[in-house]
Amino acid sequence: MATIRQTLMRALSGTTGPSSDYDFGSAAPQGVALRPAGVLAAFDAADGRLILTKRASSLRHHPGQIALPGGKVDPGDADETAAALREAHEEVGLDPARVEVLGTMPAHRTITGFAMTPVLALVHGPFTPIPEAGEVEEVFTVPFAHVCDAANYHVEGRIWRGARRDYYVAPWGPYYIWGATARVLHSLATRLCA
């Protein structure tokens, strides 16, 4: 049986291209400069559980949504990986020294104008999350088997700004994982099924 590390390394060698919030037929705006960002898909090295956050309900952007720890690349960040590690430390208290970065997947274009690079990683040793007050309402984990099974994802849609917008969802218990987070995780699951 393959280890979690071997499985994720196989996913990194997969051939799926970049993904986008516009994957379901709506046209992406042309000539828009995308801002670089990095998100950390951090799996527990022992049991494979993925760390996710529920954003604070009081936030101006994406309140209450489920997200991978991460954010935009700041001037002091070397690259998207550095941004993802910094943000994970700020948002959930994950010590970068305990994180083994395995590699990156192609960037995901968000409707909010980011080129969001997923950074696959393993967390070694016990981790007790410390949610960033005012930004993170809750930190929770999702089993590896749920994240990495493409059958757990389906497409839903709604009217947004006068047009229908479709997106992936992968609910887990009380958590409604959708949008860019679900799309990135679906890309990972697709790579594992190929």
From TrEMBL:
The keyword Transmembrane does not apply. Residues 33-175 form the Nudix hydrolase domain. One of its GO terms (molecular function) is metal ion binding. Keywords: Hydrolase, Magnesium, Manganese, Metal-binding. Its cofactor is Mg(2+); Mn(2+). This is CoA pyrophosphatase. It comes from Paracoccus thiocyanatus.
